Fold:
Amino acid sequence: MSSTLFRTKKVEQSLLDTEEPEHALKKSLSALDLTVFGVGVIIGTGIFVLTGTVAKDNAGPATALAFVAAGVACALAALCYAEFASTVPVAGSAYTFSYASLGELPAWIIGWDLVLEFALGTAVVAVGWSGYIQSLLENAGWTMPAGLGSREGADTFGFDILAAALVLVLTVILVIGMKLSARITSLVVAIKVTVVLVVIVAGAFLIEGKNYDPFIPKEKPVAAGSSLDSPLIQLMFGWAPSNFGVMGIFTAASVVFFAFIGFDVVATAAEETKNPQRDMPRGIIGSLIICTTLYVLVSIVVTGMQHYSRLSVDAPLADAFKATGHPWFAGFISFGAAVGLTTVCMILLLGQTRVFFAMSRDGLLPRFFSHVHPRFKTPHRPTILLGVLIAILAGFTPLTELAALVNIGTLFAFVVVAIGVIILRKSRPDLPRSFRTPWVPVIPILSVCASLWLMINLPAETWVRFAIWMAVGFLVYFLYGRTHSRLARGEAAEETPTAGGGAA
Structure:
């Protein structure tokens, strides 16, 4: 039985699957499209919220160093993703990678987990977007009708129609085609990055050198728990350690790490990339470099505009501009955050549908969902199904309930991909690799350690929910997936090929 649980799917077979007319996705994305997708999903509310939180409670002006440290941790994982995505350019990201290296059961576990993570992430972002839009409408003097606005704190029946509508509109866009999605994402990301750059440039003229003293605070200058007890931060991350000095920088890095999560979603679009061997590494690593640079610059500006001890928690950038006599930027920044969340929502939904599609094409989920649209060449069936379900979830469920599950699945995926790189280097040294992770196995091992360290710091309730979802996944696999997979039915070879097989 153990041999069937850890049977691997040959890379060559995965590539052949992408050529079946009924199951083949259209290749239309370039390196620029992938980079835009990466920037679009990474830059969200984190850049507008986390900077003030960690500066005030952990690192002070040295928050810039915390972003660098978090960026390095993500870069370790990104290097592993880049090798896999260029070697196995197939939809599914970590699921597909682990199927080729670790086996069917580990692949199912990570695929099942990513489906949940992306679903909850999409719903959370949609509800957050609805909140920003309602705030902007209220500033303009228009209030949503009772029962159709945010469900947060509501004690009566209601439906967040804006959150649900956003998910449904993005679902239609994703069904119509990846190129349209890429064009819309490019436009929205351009607006979002412009807002961030304007904030950086305008804020640079308001910097006062005295606000950088001390650069690395040794102790907290404000009442304990003043901002890490914020409901927003507890909501987003579920944990709130508080250290100072040099350790405060690393504590801050572990918090702001969550502002980077999302670059791995780029790998789910590998199959729809024109030249994945060249463009996937560029898209993954390029988007991470751009976002790290923007995060560092924002943290330098905001801690220079206002002393870190006086930064607000929920809106540090907007409030810093207010404190310096420029309140107009508050609305401008809220607009940028609302626009930014649109692309985050779209790309998370994109990632989920591609993982679901890949699992169904392998037979681990019903093959009904593995057929692409005859005209648009997109996985329309899983996209419509998941889009409707997430729209309902976002409409009826309060934000606090949706956001309770932290991104433990993403960190778990980082671990799996890093281990997979080491294993595939040993089992298939013959595979052509247009991009090779440097210093293997050192880089993958460091990536595993960094991810495990962050996972250990997650709250106990997150691990409990993770365990429950995994238990359900095991039931689905043993009752359906194990016997219906294409490997079990002999539709794809199980044996690892000899050296020289190569991949297209």
User: Anything to note?
Assistant: Residues 221 and 481 are 55 Å apart (CA to CA). The two ends are 32 Å apart (CA to CA).
